[in-house]
Specification:
The chain has 2 domains: 155 residues, Rossmann fold, CATH 3.40.50.300; 67 residues, no CATH class. 38% of the residues lie in helices and 26% in strands. It is built from 9 helices and 10 strands.
Amino acid sequence: MLVITDLCVDYDGVQALAGINLEVKQGEIVTLIGANGAGKTTTLKAISGLVKVRSGSIYYQGQLLNTVAPHQRLSLGIAHCPEGRHILQKQTVKENLELGAFIRSDRAAIAADMEKMFSLFPRLQERQNQLAGTMSGGEQQMLAIARALMSRPQLLLLDEPSLGLAPQIVQDIFRVIQTLKQEGVTILLVEQNAKLALEIADRGYVLEAGEIKCSGSDLLHDPRVQLAYLG
């Protein structure tokens, strides 16, 4: 579904990604792990078109994305749930979800998907008329994921969904991620909780200083990963 080849990205003349290669197959959960500043968020932003690519290629379902505008990537089926949530705090929960479906015109299906989000995240149904900025951090993270899903993505980019959340909320969110996979959503996950991410992922990549240092389907038992990221 997604193939990245020799991808280089600079920030203000400083190299953030140094020729990385990765792929995501349809139906997989693939995770990127690494220290802060390793290039994980930059990778997701490059895929969704939020940062400019210096060189290399990003292919989605065989189509070169390098010159495709961010809103067009959304229409192609790529949704990005960013680090920090970036919900519309002065809008209600329901309004945030409606705006997540702004590229769609199928009103009945949008209403059905709204109900589906409420079944995935019951707290959102309870708070659908509440201003999003007045909710807890965990509830806001649920809203950010649900809003991204309202575009009916085929590929969901999830950036640090567990950051700063209580352990029970983290477990709830990761159960939803696994449910989404069962429903056919392909997921590229950036996550600071390496153990939790690798437990649910089909494959993983380790990023260090803008380079991929190792990858595979069993990184949980890789001595290098255990030493550096798993304690």
